[in-house]
């Protein structure tokens, strides 16, 4: 049985297959299609961390495919009374649930896969480690707007604790692109001397001649207490705005996985610019998750 835990577990051909399948779920007018081909399947969303886009898009994707969806409420479950997450999921298996979308602060998904028999697991976010479905929708957005290869890509912001960036890097490095990263050095320590990316501390230099620019928010919930960031200074040095976008290629695309802290990592005018494809990312998230469910229900 297959599970989706990390993009590094997929090869280039498997990634392309998923992206092409996702494209089939969007019509020529840009609308998401419904194809209720799995009316006998049941999925459960277990989100032990807050989520808006990932959780909702999985629910929409599943319902578009005809699945029954159960949104598990962690705070009003027997886990609060002491039941383990494993026992909860085993109970769901016995109730006939086929697939679990799991977001958790810790790397529990690997043990759950080992200790259950029938459940399919899709990661909806694993601590600061992995977010494979976000990585796939980001790749889909780049593929549809710029082509998947031969791009100059910039990712700017808080990289060290970003599961979004880790998954994006696992996916995009299957293809030929030049990747630059930029951000406060205390938030980018893992990538100051990396063979996969080039670090440029000056955002004005970093955005020049870029085809794809992705902003990332400060992961306040994951910053170590010994790291102090002055938000006003950070915004001055690392905020992507419309003036900076003029230094990139005119047809560059601006991405952000959300939630966006406007006025910090992105200005309002950059968010609203013609270069912004952030809303396309949201829509592509439904199509990608439809493709993932289709693939893993069909294997």
CATH class of the largest domain: Alpha Beta
Mean pLDDT: 95
* Biggest sheet layout: 5 strands, parallel
The counted number of beta strands is: 9
Query: Number of DSSP helices?
Result: 11
CATH H level of the largest domain: which superfamily?
A: Aspartate/ornithine carbamoyltransferase
Q: Structural class per helix/strand content?
A: alpha/beta
How far do the termini sit from each other? 7 Å
Based on CA inertia axes, which overall geometry fits? globular
Tell me the Rg in angstroms.
19 Å
Query: β content, as a range?
Result: 5-15%
Q: pLDDT below 50 for ≥5 consecutive residues: which ranges?
A: none
Major β-sheet strand ordering: 7-6-5-8-9
| CATH architecture classification of the largest domain | 3-Layer(aba) Sandwich
Helix content: 25-40%
Oligomer: single chain
When the domains are counted, the total is 2
Top keywords for this entry?
Rossmann fold; five-stranded parallel β-sheet; four-stranded parallel β-sheet; 14% strand
Please describe what this structure looks like.
There is one protein chain. This protein has helices at residues 12-23, 53-64, 85-94, 109-115, 132-146, 163-172, 203-206, 231-238, 242-245, 268-271, 278-298; strands spanning 42-47, 68-72, 99-104, 120-126, 152-156, 178-182, 198-199, 212-215, 253-255. The N and C termini lie close together (7 Å). The radius of gyration is 19 Å and the shape is globular. The protein has 2 domains: 7-131 and 282-298, Aspartate/ornithine carbamoyltransferase (Rossmann fold, 3-Layer(aba) Sandwich), CATH 3.40.50.1370; 132-277, 3-Layer(aba) Sandwich (Rossmann fold), CATH 3.40.50.1370. The longest helix has 21 residues, at 278-298. It is an alpha/beta fold and 299 residues long. The strands form 2 sheets. A 5-stranded parallel beta sheet has the order 7-6-5-8-9, with helices on one face. A 4-stranded parallel beta sheet has the order 2-1-3-4. It is 36% helix and 14% strand.
């Amino acid at each position: 049985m297959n599970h989706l835990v990390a993009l590094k577990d997929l090869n280039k051909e498997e990634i392309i297959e998923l992206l092409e399948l996702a494209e089939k779920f969007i019509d020529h007018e840009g609308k998401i299609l419904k194809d209720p081909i799995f009316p006998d399947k049941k999925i459960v969303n277990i989100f032990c961390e807050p989520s808006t886009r990932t959780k909702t898009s999985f629910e929409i994707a599943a319902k578009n495919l005809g699945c029954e969806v159960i949104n598990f409420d962690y705070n009003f479950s027997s886990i609060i009374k002491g039941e383990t997450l494993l026992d909860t999921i085993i109970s769901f298996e016995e109730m006939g649930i086929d697939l679990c979308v799991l977001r958790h602060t810790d790397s529990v998904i690997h043990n759950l896969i080992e200790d259950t028999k029938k459940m399919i697991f899709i990661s909806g976010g694993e601590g600061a480690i992995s977010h494979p479905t976000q990585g796939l929708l980001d790749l889909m957005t780049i593929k549809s707007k710029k082509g998947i290869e031969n791009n100059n890509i910039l990712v700017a912001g808080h990289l060290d604790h970003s599961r979004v960036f880790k998954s994006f890097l696992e996916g995009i490095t299957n293809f030929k692109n030049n990747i630059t990263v930029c951000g406060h050095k205390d938030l980018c320590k893992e990538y100051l001397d990396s063979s996969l990316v080039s670090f440029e501390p000056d955002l004005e230099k970093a955005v020049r001649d870029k085809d794809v620019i992705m902003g990332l928010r400060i992961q306040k919930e994951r910053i170590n207490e010994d790291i102090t960031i002055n938000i006003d200074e950070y915004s001055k040095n690392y905020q992507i705005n419309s003036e900076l976008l003029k230094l990139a290629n005119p047809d560059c695309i601006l991405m952000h996985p959300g939630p966006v802290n406007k006025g910090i990592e992105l200005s309002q005018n950059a968010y609203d610019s013609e270069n912004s494809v952030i809303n396309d990312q949201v829509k592509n998230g439904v199509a990608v998750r439809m493709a993932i469910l289709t693939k893993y229900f069909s294997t």
